[in-house]
Design goal:
The chain is an alpha+beta fold. Among the domains are: 1-131 and 476-578, Rossmann fold, CATH 3.40.50.300; 209-322. 54% of the residues lie in helices and 19% in strands. It has helices spanning 35-45, 75-82, 115-125, 143-149, 152-179, 183-203, 209-221, 223-238, 247-262, 269-293, 302-320, 324-342, 344-390, 443-446, 449-463, 483-496, 509-513, 540-552, 557-577, and strands spanning 2-10, 13-19, 24-28, 61-69, 91-99, 104-108, 111-113, 126-129, 397-413, 416-419, 426-433, 441-442, 471-475, 501-505, 517-525, 531-537. The strands form three sheets. Strands 2-1-4-5-6-7 form a six-stranded antiparallel β-sheet, with helices on one face. It has a six-stranded mixed β-sheet with strand order 8-13-14-3-15-16. The protein has a four-stranded antiparallel β-sheet with strand order 10-9-11-12. Strand 5 (91-99) and strand 6 form a beta hairpin. The chain is elongated, with a radius of gyration of 41 Å.
């Protein structure tokens, strides 16, 4: 549930701090006062797109921060803990900072997060319905999801099993199609792979061989330079001839002199030891150099053999992989594909048998799912009908229509090929008739804007009792209604507020009167001619004045009396839901 909302330098808002309570809350104000700006800010916390245009003129960045109550045992709390954003004492803080460049930073409980992460947790926090969001009802593809929400855990579990089995079936059928390519294509592919496999096999590659060859090749290409350099180093240490003193002899003489001197000065003994160590290391190095020089002449043909082998491996690398290991891995992969292609007929038979088994297992599942849906649909029709009657649509008839899928993917049911998807075999569409004597038709053909808003409210009133979202947000969804319908909508929103937090932007005084909490949004112009948006929570006297304004624009005894009557009515509605 939304507990607080803090806004800095967003649009016309310089600074705004709002505290929210449980139940039904309305935001009212003149047209263009900035009511929807507040909902835009809430939308940012729920992962909606940010724009640099939202940053208030003269500010470097905008900041929106919201605090939400979270049940520590809820699915959201578990999700947050698994994602490393555990709530603290049942409280969740989300912030969004937008810069002048349009870039935004998101934080969840103080830790950097992504916009996509906000989008993942948004369905647990709040559900927003704008004036145009009613249009989702016009998309028949969404109706099955609405229906399934009412089916409870049993239907959800069955639907998940259908989805799993369906995608297993899709994968097996894809594999079968791949195998059953035309015989010519399969033969061509097999011929190519066998050539590649043989070419790699005949090379008799060893892991790491390419690196060893590169090292040996470098040595053989520079053998004269290596011999000259090592021989010169040996002469420097041993002496080139009898008349030349080498490093070893010079060190040996130095050791003798220091040894003699240390007989008179014991402090030189450590120097003597150091020189003896150096002399030992020089003699070791000379032995190593001598062994290197005595290796004998290099086989003149070795370089040619190494070059040929190196060129072969380079050719294979260009075709099959960057390293010998990659080439060998590719050989293993094409070996498996060769086996599959050579055994395509038997593999195809195995897949066909597996597909038949999956289809046979899927049939009772989709039939059971369809049966459960029809039971839920019958209950939904009855409850929506009751809600619509209350919402001043007494003559309306609401029907959940079922039809079978028409898809390439099919199951045989009762001798008929029936289309199937991850949702099962059902196409579901909501139909409505708003006038007596007319057959129910799709919502797109018969429902006006006001009627669509009431159908949406009826469905949300029913679904709110089973879904997990804590907060419902309505942005002028009551557009296009008035009179008795407005009173009915107000009463239903008040009832909805008994078990959900409901935030609603409205121009209807009837709806505003039904709320337990009332905020008024208004523009304020400073002496410097700077326009900002302010929000005040109204006390009962102020609510009376605001309702009077909403009723007629002018404060009169009649409008005040009517406003008081509406407030009393709203209190009665709320008392009925307690």
């Amino acid at each position: 549930m939304l507990r607080e909302l803090h806004i800095r330098d967003y649009a016309l808002i310089k600074q705004l701090d709002l505290q929210f309570e449980r139940g039904f809350t309305v935001l009212t104000g003149e047209t263009g006062a900035g009511k929807s700006i507040i909902l835009d800010c809430l939308g940012l916390l729920l992962g909606q797109r940010a724009s640099a245009e939202g940053v208030r003129r003269g500010a470097d960045h905008a900041l929106v921060e919201g605090g939400f109550e979270v049940d520590p045992e809820s699915e959201l709390a578990r999700f947050l803990r698994e994602s490393g954003f555990a709530e603290e004492d049942g409280y969740l803080v989300i912030s969004r900072e937008i810069s002048r460049t349009g870039r935004s930073k998101c934080r969840i409980n103080g830790r950097i997060a992504t916009v996509s992460m906000l989008g993942e947790i948004a369905p647990y926090l709040a559900e927003m319905h704008g004036q145009h969001d009613n249009q989702v009802l016009l998309r028949a593809s969404s109706h099955i999801q609405w229906l399934d929400q009412l089916g409870g855990a049993e239907l959800a579990s069955l639907k998940a099993e259908v989805e799993t089995r369906y995608f297993e079936l899709v994968e097996k059928e894809r594999a079968l199609r791949d195998i059953l390519h035309s015989e010519r294509e399969r033969a061509q592919r097999l011929d190519l792979l066998q050539f590649q496999f043989t070419e790699i096999a005949e090379a008799q590659l060893r892991p790491g061989e390419d690196e060893e060859l590169a090292e040996r090749r470098r040595i053989l290409q520079n053998v004269e330079k290596l011999r000259g350099a090592t021989q010169e180093a040996y002469f420097l240490m041993s002496g080139r001839d009898m008349d030349t003193l080498g490093i070893r002899d010079a060190l040996s003489q130095a050791v003798e002199r220091i040894a003699e001197a240390s007989r008179y000065d014991a402090s030189l003994q450590s120097l003597q030891q150091n020189l003896e160590t150096v002399l030992y290391n020089v003699e070791e190095a000379m032995m190593t150099l001598r062994d290197y020089l005595e290796q004998g002449e290099v086989d003149p043909g070795e370089l040619d053999r190494v070059e040929a082998r190196y060129a072969l491996i380079q050719q294979l690398r260009r075709k099959y992989g960057d390293t010998v290991e990659d080439i060998l891995q590719y050989q293993g992969e094409i070996g498996e594909e060769i086996t599959q292609l050579e055994n395509a007929d038997s593999l195809a038979a195995e897949l066909e048998e597996e597909i038949s088994r999956l289809k046979a297992a899927l049939v009772p599942l989709v039939l059971d799912l369809s049966s459960q849906r029809r039971e839920v649909a019958a209950n939904l029709e009855k409850r929506v009908q009751e809600e619509l009657a209350f919402l001043n649509m007494e003559k309306a008839v609401f029907v959940v229509e079922f039809d079978r899928h028409r898809r390439e993917q099919t199951l045989e049911i009762d001798g008929e090929q029936v289309g199937v998807s991850a949702d099962g075999i059902d196409n579901v569409q909501f139909l409505i008739s708003t006038n007596p004597g007319e057959a129910p038709q799709p919502l797109t053909k018969v429902a006006s804007g006001g009627e669509l808003a009431r159908v949406m409210l009826a469905l949300k009133s029913i679904l709110a009792q089973v879904d997990s979202v804590a907060t419902l947000v309505f942005d002028e969804v009551d557009t296009g209604i008035g009179g008795k319908a407005a009173l009915a909508v107000a009463q239903r929103l008040a009832r909805l507020g008994a078990y959900k937090q409901v935030l609603c932007v409205t121009h209807l005084p009837q709806v505003a009167a039904g709320a337990a909490h009332h905020f008024m949004v208004e523009k304020q112009v400073s002496e410097a001619n700077v326009t900002t948006v302010g929000v005040n929570e109204l006390n009962p006297e102020q609510r009376l004045e605001e309702l009077s304004r909403m009723l007629g624009g002018h404060r009169t005894e009649a409008s005040l009396s009517h406003a008081a009557e509406l407030m009393n009515m709203g209190q009665q509605w709320r008392n009925l839901t307690v």
